[in-house]
Amino acid sequence: MKICYKLMMLCLLLPAASCQKWLDLKPQNEQVSDAYWTNKAEVEAVLGAAYVKLQGAVKTMLVWGEGRGNTLSLGGYVDVDLLRLKSFSLLPTNNYAKWGEFYQIINYANMVIKYAPAVVEKDPAFNQATMASFLSEAYFLRALSYFYIVRSFGEAPLILEPYMDDQQAYELSKSSKAQLFDQIVQDLTVASNNGKEIWPTVWETKGRSTKWAIQALLADVYLWLGKYDEAIIACNTILQSGKYGLLQGTVNNKNNWFSIFNPGNSNEGIFEIQFDYTKNQTNKLMEIFGSNYNWIISNYCVSLFTENAEDIRGAGASYETVAYKLWKYLGAEGNTTIPRPYSDQNWIIYRMADIYLMKAEALIMKGESYYPQAVELITTIRSRASISRPLEAGSTELDILKALMDERAREFVGEGKRWFDLLRVAQRDQYKYKEYLIEQVLLGVSGASTPVIRSLLLNENAHYLPIHADELKYNKLLVQNPYYENLN
C-alpha cells in the first residue's frame, strides 16, 4: 500500500490561540522528519492537521454509513460510482472504496504518539499533562479512523508506526476484524485515562476529543463486539455526567430540536466535526443534499415519520416535502423555507440521543428481563419528538430490535448511521439477523432490482467494500475481498 502523507501548509484547526497559525515546513513537499519535533507548537500542528483531514472525510462518512441503507434514496445528479454503491454492484475501481483519508488521519496520530513524548524534554512550555492530553486525542482519532475502516472493509492493514519517508517500504497485509477491534479498544482505553472533560471554548469541547467523546465511541464499539455490559457502562458515564441533555421541542415549534443542526454545538452534541465559514471551513453537505441533491430522503423513511403525524423530526425538520431534500442540512430554521446561507454545518458523529438508543440496544441484547428498561429509553426519545402514542415494541428480541432500529432511522436520517446500524444487528451471533438486513435494504430500492440485490446480500462478503485497485497495485501483500476477486 503506497500511502503518501505530505504535510501541506494547513490552517491549524485547533490551536489554543487564534486559529491563524500555519504549519511551516521547509519545502512544502518535505516529509516531517525526526528533526521536526522540537516544541509544543509543532506537536499541536500535526494534531491539528489530523482534525483538518477529519473535516475532509465527511463525505466518505456519509456514503459509507448511509449509501447502502434504506433511509436515503438517490436524488438528482448521481455519478456511476454512487449508483453502483447503492445497488451493491461496486467494482474495485470505485472512488467510494478508497480508504486513504482515514489512513492519513491515522498517520498523523501515529506521528504524535511516537514523537510527542520526547518533546517534553525539549520545550519547557510543553509539560507532561499537556502531552498526555495530546496523546489522548491522537489515540481517539486513530481509533475513530479504524472504526470506520473495519465497519466498511472488514479487514485492513493495521498500521501503528508513522510513515515518514517516501523511501520507506510500506507493504502490509490485512489484519483481521478481531485484531482491528482489539486495537480500537486498546487505543480508547489509553485515551480515556487522560481525556479532557472540557476545553476552553464550546467549539473545542464539541469538536476535539473529550472524555465523553471517547466513552461514546467505546459504547458504539462494544455494541459491535457484543460486550453489552461494557457498552452500558460507557453510556452511563455520559448519562450520569450532567454535561449533556436532550433538546426538547413542540409540535408547533420545531426550532429547538432543529438547533442541533443549526447552529450546532448544542447541549445535545458530544462530538461534532467543526466547520465555520468565517474561517474558510466549509463542507459539501449543501451540495450533496441541495444543489446536486445526490441523496434525498427515501419513501420508506418518509413512511416511518408519517406513522406519527406529530413527530417534530419529520416534514419541515429532517426533510422538506417539495423534492424531499434533507432540510436538517439545508435549512436555517425548522418548519420554514429559510435556507442556510453557507455550507458550514457541523457533522455530528455522536449526540445524546445516540447514547439513549445505544444503551437501549445493549439492554435488549441482555435478555427479556431488560426489555422494559430499553422501551423506557426508546420512549424518552419518542416523547422528546412529541410522539404520544405508546411504543408497540412486540415481545421477541427481533421485534424490539426492529422498534429500536425504526427509532434510530427517524432520529439519525442522513447522519451516517443507517447502514452501519443494519449491519451491526444483522451480523450478531453468526449473522443471526441476516434476513432482517436484506429485508430492510430492499425497502429502500426499486422493485425491479430487488431479486438481484437479495441474491447479492446473501453473500456476507458483499456487505463490505472492495479494496481499491490502486491499493492492490502498490501493496502486493494485500488480498482482495473474495466477493470482488474476479471483478475489475
From TrEMBL:
<protein>
    <submittedName>
        <fullName>Tetratricopeptide (TPR) repeat protein</fullName>
    </submittedName>
</protein>
<dbReference type="Pfam" id="PF14322">
    <property type="entry name" value="SusD-like_3"/>
</dbReference>
<feature type="domain" description="SusD-like N-terminal">
    <location>
        <begin position="21"/>
        <end position="223"/>
    </location>
</feature>
<dbReference type="InterPro" id="IPR012944">
    <property type="entry name" value="SusD_RagB_dom"/>
</dbReference>
<comment type="similarity">
    <text>Belongs to the SusD family.</text>
</comment>
<dbReference type="Pfam" id="PF07980">
    <property type="entry name" value="SusD_RagB"/>
</dbReference>
<feature type="domain" description="RagB/SusD">
    <location>
        <begin position="323"/>
        <end position="484"/>
    </location>
</feature>
<keyword id="KW-0998">Cell outer membrane</keyword>
<dbReference type="InterPro" id="IPR033985">
    <property type="entry name" value="SusD-like_N"/>
</dbReference>
<keyword id="KW-0472">Membrane</keyword>
<feature type="signal peptide">
    <location>
        <begin position="1"/>
        <end position="21"/>
    </location>
</feature>
<keyword id="KW-0732">Signal</keyword>
<dbReference type="InterPro" id="IPR011990">
    <property type="entry name" value="TPR-like_helical_dom_sf"/>
</dbReference>
